[in-house]
Specification:
Keywords: Ion channel, Ion transport, Membrane, Potassium, Potassium transport, Transmembrane, Transmembrane helix, Transport, Voltage-gated channel. The protein is α+β, with helices and mostly antiparallel strands. The chain has helices at residues 2-13, 23-37, 39-51, 65-94, 97-100, 189-194, 262-276, 286-306, 313-318; strands spanning 103-105, 109-114, 117-126, 135-146, 152-158, 165-166, 172-177, 198-206, 213-220, 225-227, 229-231, 235-237, 242-244, 252-254, 335-339. The strands form four sheets. Strands 4, 5, 6, 8, 9 and 15 form a six-stranded antiparallel β-sheet that branches. Strands 1, 2, 3, 7 and 10 form a five-stranded mixed β-sheet that branches. A two-stranded antiparallel sheet has the order 11-14. Strand 8 and strand 9 form a beta hairpin.
Length: 340
Amino acid sequence: MSYYGSSYPIVNVNPKYPGYPPEHILAEKRRARRRLLHKDGAFLFSLETQTTIGYGYRCVTEECSVAVLMVILQSILSCIINTFIIGAALAKMATARKRAQTIRFSYFALIGMRDGKLCLMWRIGDFRPNHVVEGTVRAQLLRYAEDSEGRMTMAFKDLKLVNDQIILVTPVTIVHEIDHESPLYALDRKAVAKDNFEILVTFIYTGDSTGTSHQSRSSYVPREILWGHRFNDVLEVKRKYYKVNCLQFEGSVEVYAPFCSAKQLDWKDQQLHNTDKAPPVRGSGTSDTTVRRRSFSAVAIVSSCENPEETTTSTTDECKEAPYQKAVLTLNRISVESQM
């Protein structure tokens, strides 16, 4: 606007016309030049043109074609400026980036026993009074590998979640049960620590104020996975209400968990189950022999699962699926929270 305001006096002071116009045209041009000659008058004329307020005695006549061209250019420029300003304001209101910053993921993911199964767990919380409408959690295991031709490839494997559809009123612990379909099935404690993978977790939800879809995501690498831990309780039951202790969002305690993989644990449980089904030995000490046999089998299975230094041949054969002997690429932690 200031540029056009300074251009109008130049246009009127230095008109370029071929020849000499008649006297009445020259007089009209002089009057128009006197109206726009002062810098304040030129600025007001530029302001009235861009904001379409309406002209007073300052106006552009058909006798000055250069001034008409300047008015046209300024009108076009004003439309472009208004479009960018209004678009930026609407985009700022539509994508509330501050909303995604209130969704938090726990810094560590935990592996521990849950309902008799070895599970991978992490926690998601919403620290805003007005909560999200609905949300869907998705987890993928990302692994870099080298094919037969020596090229690097990226493989994705979805992790099946026990609770993928959640309502985030209170912090929720997301659980992935490590079963035979899980890519973590053959990995024990050592294998997880030495392996080269990344677990990418995504939370897609709908904001209650704008109704738009948002996406928050984070990831966990092997050094951010704690084996044999459990999250602390954040929900405290009072007499008339429930209280959420946000200070315990990241808190965890160390609990019992076997150091073997879920595959080895299932195999040893099957051995114990087959031992329990063994027919009793005939004789006077039948019941005593059966009890001793079951007790010895249980102790042997638990001891082999609890020993982290056990490196037997069978364990090595069962964990051949885990390519942790050679680290292809070292992945760093990613903590990104954005919106769709």
